[in-house]
Amino acid sequence: MPIDYLKRILNSRVYDVVQTTPLEAAPGLSASCDNRVWLKREDYLPVFSFKLRGAYNKLAGLSVEKRERGVVCASAGNHAQGVAFSADFLKSKATIVMPKTTPRIKVDAVKKLGGKAVKTELVGSTFDEAYEYARGLEKHHELTFVHPFDDPDIIAGQGTIGMEILHQYSRYMAPGGIHAVFCPIGGGGLISGVAAYIKSLRPEIKIIGVEAIDSDAMTRSLRAGRRVKLQQIGLFADGTAVKQVGGETFRLCRQFVDETICVDTDAICAAIKEIFEDTRSVMEPAGALAVAGLRAYVQKYGVQGENMVAITSGANMNFNRLRFVAERAEVGERREALFAVTLPERPGAYKAFVSLIGKRDITEFNYRYSDAHQAHVFVGMEVEGSSEAKALLDMLHREGYESIDLSGDEMAKLHIRHLVGGHAPQAENEILYRLEFPERPGALMNFLNHMSADWNISLFHYRNHGADTGRVLVGMQVPPEDQDKFKVFLQKLGYQHWNESDNPAYKLFLS
Hints:
The protein has 3 domains: 16-49 and 153-315, 3-Layer(aba) Sandwich (Rossmann fold), CATH 3.40.50; 54-148, 3-Layer(aba) Sandwich (Rossmann fold), CATH 3.40.50; 334-509, Biosynthetic Threonine Deaminase, domain 3, CATH 3.40.1020.10. The protein has 20 helices and 18 strands. It has helices spanning 5-10, 27-33, 51-60, 64-69, 78-90, 104-114, 127-141, 152-172, 189-201, 217-224, 247-256, 265-279, 289-301, 322-332, 349-357, 386-398, 410-419, 443-450, 483-493, 504-509, and strands spanning 23-25, 36-41, 71-74, 94-98, 118-122, 144-145, 178-184, 206-212, 259-263, 307-312, 336-344, 362-368, 374-382, 402-405, 430-438, 456-463, 469-477, 496-499. The strands form 3 sheets. It has an 8-stranded antiparallel sheet with strand order 14-11-13-12-16-17-15-18. Strands 1-2-10-7-8-9 form a 6-stranded mixed sheet, with helices on both faces. The protein has a 4-stranded parallel sheet with strand order 5-4-3-6, with helices on both faces. Strand 16 (456-463) and strand 17 (469-477) form a beta hairpin.
């Protein structure tokens, strides 16, 4: 007999512990997408994730005897917090198994939420390894297993999000109906519940699933017509890093989901930034998937003037990831292009190159002297989309600069930009200075205009960090007889500066 998910969702117990989360307009995203974008803020829940809904609904439906005997779950973090919170609230024993790769913020949160009756164990490097271990505990100790996604009670709990979206949207009376609802997909519990409810009442609303491109188990399964198990998965969007989707969630997705979209790391980082600019909240990567997918959908189909809902599913972000996210967001938004440019190795070559670029903001400039004939420069420049990046590359070619667009090169973005350097034994009379440039257009050109044309730049590193000053490391070949002249140059320049020529790190790695 088929499960009546509409009835299960309407009878869900989630509102014992959950208040309806906001459906907020996102003006910045709406303007940039040329559609009306609404964010369903599941990060507002006590565990900062939608997972509390399904976990509580499951535990609340268990008998007192089963709760006293105990439950066990496996989770990449957010489901674990939902089970810990629910177990503590319902006075149930619980064992929570998480992969060793689970972000520390989630592990600590589970321990805080669970109280004395909740025990945590870190096992394996993936969800699947933690899952197998938890299943062993279930059999050995006769515990109740609380599945993170492939359980009708879990799916029904998550489905209350779809119920809230329809109720809230009808109150706003926005022009037109909802065109599409975008849901992140890991194992499929969230999208299955949302789709089952919305499609039962409003079948014209599209349900679009979004996966990380390196964890696309549902996309591959729907394409193959059977559940596909991935051999490897990416862990950046750890909240959706699942090798195989559930049997029940796969069945529901085949029935109700209109389409799935896959997005890369840069697109996810760009979505995190865009959500922050609208809400001042920082989503975890999985929590921003829906917005990244919404952007990709709009770009793919050219949809305009429609109402789009994206579920921001979680905000359990590790602080130490923020630097990586900020660095990759500009590339993900197509606002930064990265190029490898070959310049002739002669005095004045940098000035000529910077003059060619004009008023365009340089976001990064890496170079180390290698030979007397040509210089290979890693440079980032601010652009307005991929078409402008292509136009810029064409201009460089026309002007005789051998250039390669590295904006889509993963190795270049992850590693090469940080490794442009090395020893330069031919860089005679080199002195090294650290400077702070005012972060404004023309600061680099001002530096080059004041500098003597007889001094060769042998090292240059600059990266825009979003501060009011740009931190620059520059090496110049200045003959001993020009030392006084160089000091005058620094005084006239007026930038803060520090002589690093005796720095031991410079001597070890660069000089």
